[in-house]
Amino acid sequence: MLFWTSTAAEEKKPEKKAEKKGPIDPEAFTDFELIAKTVVSPNSSIYRFKLQPNESLNLPVASYILAQGETGEEKPTVRPYTPITYDEKGYFELMIKSYPEGKLSKYIGNLKVGDKLSIKGPKAKLEYKPNMKKTIAMIAGGSGVTPMLQVAHEILKNPADKTEVRLIFANVTQDDILLKERIDGWAKKHPNFKVLYTLDKPPEGWTGGKGFVSEEMVKKFIPAPSNDVMVFVCGPPGMMKAVSGPKTPDFKQGELAGVLKTVGFNEDQVFKF
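Below the sequence we write its predicted structure tokens.
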């Protein structure tokens, strides 16, 4: 485990620090150099940060990191991001959407190659184990696809992992679909990976899903609720409320609601990123 918590018997002992298992430190921010920036949508880019040539990020799946920047506030602004490339040697990548009101996303968006970003972590979200479920269904909106990409990559790179992956990816327009080429490549190469794109504003001739993630869409594309099926959800607040119910203010899972509850899933079968 990356973190330790005190029990009653340990309260008088000095608190142990999380062990550093890779190039980033779980306790202290470290600067990493930006070596490339690739625009992938009108408001999103992939930022590649430098590691040593034979070094990888070495983070457990699924995990996120914390990024920090000076944004003019009294204290540095800190936000969580999920690396989309974490096992390649020599670099790791973050895909970040810049919001008009997003203090750190705008700060990162203004970084130039050669600039540095302060990062610490990783922090574990959910421990993925090969074949832990027969099917993992994923419902993502916008940049909420990043943890889904991390888990899907972990599954698809392992020939011994036979997990079926079903991704519903919701966006406003076709131009907003992040990393569509990569996702379509997975669908073409791996029979156990299927994707359904749905758009709020589909173009003429669009053959994918239309509108918000609905009960009908979930029933048609995701296997019926059972202990062999787990659903991951990540996206903007409106989507989370409609699909699964929001997480609590202190970032706990919270009560299951929305479409997934209506179709019969229970809280043990859904994980909100």
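Residues 67 and 79 are 6 Å apart (CA to CA).
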